[in-house]
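so my prof wants the structure for this chain in the tokens format not the other one, which i didnt know existed until like an hour ago. anyway here's the sequence
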Amino acid sequence: MATIREYSRVDIGPQNALFNNFKTLVESAFYGNNVTHVADLRTAYSNALQAPGVVVTDMPVEHAAELGLPDDAKVIVSNDGRVVGRTAAARRIIGQPGIDAKKYADVLREAVFTGTRRPFYSGDVIVGLDPEFMVRAHLMLNQNYAANFYSYLLNFQIATRKIMGMYAQSTEYQENDIYVYADPDWSSPDFPNGLALFDPTHNVAAILGLRYFGELKKATLTLAWATAHRNGFTACHGGMKRYDLGASKFTMAAFGLSGSGKSTITLAKHSGKYHVDVLHDDAFVIKRDTGTTTALEPAYFDKTADYAPSDPVLRYVLTCQNVGVTLDDHGEKIVVTQEVRNNNGRAIKSRFMTPNRVDHIDEPLDAVFWIMKDDTLPPVVRVDDATLATVFGATLATKRSTAENLVGKVDMNKLVIEPFANPFRCYPLGEDYAAFKELFAGGRTTCYILNTGYFNGKKVTPKDTSGSIEKIVEHAAEFAPFPLLPELQYMPIAGFDVPTGDAEYAARLHARLQDRLDFLNAKQTADDGYNAVPQEAADAVQELLARLG
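here's what i got, hopefully its the right format
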């Protein structure tokens, strides 16, 4: 999606949609004499090698030349301190209830001024990999964090001559480029957990006092998703793939928080039973009028928890964050994964990890899978009613992820609700509710719920989940009415029988539905109703509760 950048093409005024003080503050900083622009990956790699604390391993980067890197490029490791995840408590979004725009403009102005005393790098990327959706993004980052700067250019599509040629032919909208200003060395006693400040209307963000690379990635996606949302797309924090069955194709999207199994489901190879094209495992957008989908990033930013030293996936790692390093039998430096150093070790992996990658899918979605860890739900549930399908997405229940830096005392085992698995929304929840309901109401897209946690004390394995999805894809799945809630259908699977006549189970199911109803009711009044959803959502859950008695 091409964006409008030229000052001369807009009328600057108090009601102007493209310029305001936040946008001007952030963009102006990019042109300071303390900023060095980096235009290619070779330079970014060279800078990263010299960054404080970076470990240059002896692990070669595969496909280095094709990525625009030196032939002898190696995987680099950069590690943070106490915080190794995203800090949701640091997020402030201009335009939302209770956010004092003048106060945060003052904070930002002082932060940017302080930053002029430090050297920064700047660089450009494209978010969105098809002319149907492309937006240009600019990052300005303290030079001490050159490893994160390099990872950013790898994670998104660096603005090469070829890509900019494609970008020039993409659809133009009245939107700003994205500008992200980041200074992890900033600190303030008023913001002990850092500050992630967003002005989504003007496509700018400031990430202050936060070192974790994921803050840069998700800040950029936050603004890109908001841009897409304003221009006829549904923003999706999920994975998307297409099965080629020969005579037909089947497209599916899986939505879940980090650690829910989203990437495992999206990247599953299904033992070579059929050809599968992968769009992405984390971020894409759906064009609402056509149903076509576009990936936002070429690379993957995934957990390293399940990667043993011999795992072939490690061949495609480009950089690592918050993992250990050791010497192998040959005295060469290799990474220590599997959460040994800390939780939420991460790696940027190249698109070459999945040779069947595609950047755009023309076929509309056949199925949406809400991934939950709710022990009152069988492994697979089908929801045929469009309102209920949307309600379960709006009340997606799961467990906290180790990708989060949780402030205060938090029970990691307690179920939480994260609507549509997207904690990065910066516009009213009701707008996502309407977009997803429209998807289901069309009749083509079927809704399923996947429980990837436990059901009645028994773990649902990846094999259980993958096998169930294959049956759905092959149109061989059988469903039966859910005994206690016939509005839902479930897939009978050996070892996962749904209890009938079990008062304790019925009480737990009632409690989970009540949690959903309480969540929806709270949204109606919190923050002056900013995240309210239509009353039909609460009414649908209330009907299910009434049936349970």
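also thought this was worth mentioning. The mean pLDDT is 93.
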